[in-house]
Amino acid sequence: MSSAAPTGAPRTSDTPTPARPVPPGAPVVGFDLDMTLVDSSAGIAATMRAVLAEVGVAVTADDVWPYAGMPLESIVAGLVPGTAADGVAVLTARYRELYPDLGVPSVRAYPAAAAALRAPAALGGRSVVVSAKHTPNVHRVLAVTGLAGVVADEDVTGDLFAEDKGVRLREVGATAYVGDHPGDVRAARVAGAVAVAVTTGSHDAAALRRAGADVVLAGLEEFPGWLAAHAADLRDGERAVPVPR
Hints:
This protein is an alpha/beta fold. The protein is built from 10 helices and 8 strands. This is Phosphoglycolate phosphatase.
């Protein structure tokens, strides 16, 4: 795994690529990025602390941690309450400017992330990454963690949260979505997909179940076993998932 973050702007597309077909009954699994596939907590905290220090606001990593998985604008607004919308926009832009250098190098993939991303393809299906992180930074994180070669560029989407993620997941025909945040559960509901939660983020199993997760896993190590059962259900026509709403 490389220790240096890519500095050039990664390839991105403003228009999502249409879903590639998979055989009937094959799993199409969406994955969240931060705190689901990768541990990005240190880099997010370091970048946020640097940005807010420039305007005289001191925060700690513990202050930032509860916001893991939320859109950047929500994190800024939560850490600096009362900031006007234009001020939030300025701080958000500064964060995105600093993140490639301050945040990306410390990101590490969870040990089972690559295997989890590969698992649907082994069953004839497809993996996609749908994240709240700014799309160019999603690609940077995937590159520095060695996951860029595991998921195709056209299967990566950023700048979406909660229900907006669900719209993209529905477009690609996702049968399941894996994430660490209650917003990811809502995304799965919109997509009509199974909501698979992992407890590697700031929300524990009880909170994720209260949010409506269909399945709660301790981490991605448990995902391949669950996926095998999910794929069997799909083949048997037993896709019992929530009604999109």
